[in-house]
Design brief:
five-stranded mixed β-sheet, mainly beta, Immunoglobulin-like, four-stranded antiparallel β-sheet, single chain, 36 strands, 3% helix, Neuraminidase
Length: 491
């Protein structure tokens, strides 16, 4: 009995994520069909709704891409098996998902290496319509998708026919696409868009083992010449099998990552540009723990300019079926020039019950939270998806050794707006910047900027701002305050 008690205490002592990350929430279902090892996940956020898609290690024999949704900000998830057998292909793989300006869900599924289909859902993924084939030729692999308003952008490697990197674009919510080859190189691409709608494309190229970058300033109609960023070295081991890359951009800064073995075990390599992709830094290791292996890195800029990177960590190299993994996170206040020490996102360490955990798992943010979904084998029967989130305002603050008094709130304002609204701003000797953002993280209003020598009251009209959920943010050198608003507008 004493031995059992000690073992139980030790097990539960490790069941925590590092603050401010919330406890892990299981995304995968307990339904009888889920005896599958889920991995390679992508998700999107729209207000309090979260939409997730992934593939499985058994995708070669079972035609399922598990789809999940949450309508309560990630407190609970419902997962259902997505299957489309009209192509006659079992293999559902490389899924990507996004949300348009109406909150409708767009999903991309690759079927073996034969074709890619785009799907649209107007009810949060409970039903799907407007199915469109994206690729004009067979031989597709490793696609990525960006959804922006009514436009959809997709890049992938073409492995047959006209080999290279292809790019497809839709301006009608995915009802039709135009596609063409834009690059003679191929392998793993990462596609991103900044707030000025510039497209950024990063390529881990094979068989020449180079890392390259290209940019489009006209929504993909033309692309600037390639820039060589680095060479890469990668070894497959249990749990990871590709030097997956990511790219993110904000303002003049572009930041990219890939997985690399140049320093023995896996590391997350980073490169950054501070002049919109014209010139680049030398590559450097992002992860602060350099022993063992780090894989599946993903970088993301929030709307305020904070840079976030997640990745898997294991103390082992090389890895095997007994290797223990955890999901870790690092934050940069200076666009990737330096990073805070890493913290743990997953509230436990875990082994993987399949060699394949997927090539990618992403993080993304809205105006209030950073979100992450990943796979792990903590339940002991198969790999499942888990979800967590953390407040951006808390991630951006370094942990202090002493307990500090809570700062006074900057803003006093109703959280439901209807007609005339009074916003009270507390006295501050430091400049305060107050802006409004929509659920997609786009700025929709500049409210105030400057010092407040005495209490100030601003009178706003709710009809001047988008209806629905918006976020009011006040930022100073010492405080970062975000308030969620429900704007009803004016009847």
């Amino acid at each position: 009995m004493k031995l059992l008690m000690v073992t139980t205490i030790l097990c539960f002592a490790f069941l925590h994520a590092d603050a401010p990350w919330n406890a892990s929430i299981r995304v995968s279902t307990d339904e009888p069909w889920d005896t599958l090892n889920q991995g390679e996940s992508c998700f999107a956020v729209w207000g309090d709704s979260i939409f997730s898609i992934c593939n499985t290690a058994e995708r070669g024999v079972i035609p399922i891409a598990p789809y999940a949704y949450s309508f309560n900000a990630g407190q609970t998830f419902t997962q259902i098996p997505f299957t489309d057998l009209t192509s006659g292909i079992i293999w559902h793989t490389d899924p990507v998902i996004g949300v348009d300006d109406s909150g409708h869900v767009h999903m991309l599924i690759q079927y073996s290496a034969t074709l890619m289909k785009h799907y649209l859902s107007r009810d949060g993924g409970q039903t799907w319509c407007d199915t469109t084939q994206v690729n004009p030729e067979n031989g597709v692999d490793k696609p990525w998708m960006v959804v922006n308003g009514n436009e959809i952008y997709i890049a992938w490697q073409q492995t047959a026919g006209e080999i290279g990197i292809w790019f497809a674009k839709s301006t009608d919510y995915g009802q039709s696409f135009t596609a063409s080859r834009i690059w003679g190189r191929r392998y793993i691409n990462a596609l991103g868009m900044d707030e000025n709608e510039n497209l950024h494309l990063m390529l881990v190229s094979s068989p020449d083992y180079g890392v390259f970058y290209r940019k489009s300033t006209d929504h993909g109609d033309t692309w600037l010449p390639e820039v060589h960023l680095s060479n890469w070295l990668y070894y497959t081991s249990y749990g990871d099998r590709a030097p997956i890359n990511s790219i993110t951009a904000r303002g003049n800064v572009v930041f990219g990552t890939w997985v690399d073995n140049s320093y023995d075990g896996w590391d997350i390599m980073g490169v950054r540009s501070t002049d919109s992709g014209t010139t680049w830094s030398a590559p450097f290791v992002v992860n602060d723990i350099t022993s063992g292996g780090q894989c599946k890195g993903w970088a993301h800029f929030d709307v305020y300019g904070g840079l976030h990177v997640i990745y898997y960590h294991t103390p082992d190299w090389p890895t095997d079926t007994f290797s223990v993994f955890e999901l870790r996170y690092q934050y940069s206040t200076d666009s990737g020039a330096t990073f805070n020490p890493s913290i743990r996102v997953s509230d436990t360490s875990f082994t993987s019950l399949a060699d394949f955990m997927g090539e990618y798992h992403i993080c993304l943010s809205d105006s209030q939270y950073l979100y992450a979904i990943w796979t792990d084998g903590r339940n002991g029967d198969d790999n499942d998806l888990y979800f967590s989130k953390a407040l951006l305002s808390e991630l951006s603050v370094k942990e202090e050794p002493a307990i500090l008094a809570q700062p006074q709130q900057i803003l006093c304002v109703p959280t439901i707006w209807h007609g005339s609204v009074t916003l009270e701003i507390q006295k501050s000797t430091l400049p305060i910047d107050i802006k409004l953002y929509d659920v997609a993280g786009r700025m929709v209003g500049k409210i105030y900027n400057g010092e407040v020598s005495s209490g100030l009251a601003l009178h706003l009209n709710s009809n001047d701002f988008p209806k629905g959920i918006i976020f009011l943010r006040a930022l100073s050198d010492t405080q970062n305050e975000v308030i969620k608003i429900i704007n009803l507008g004016v009847h």
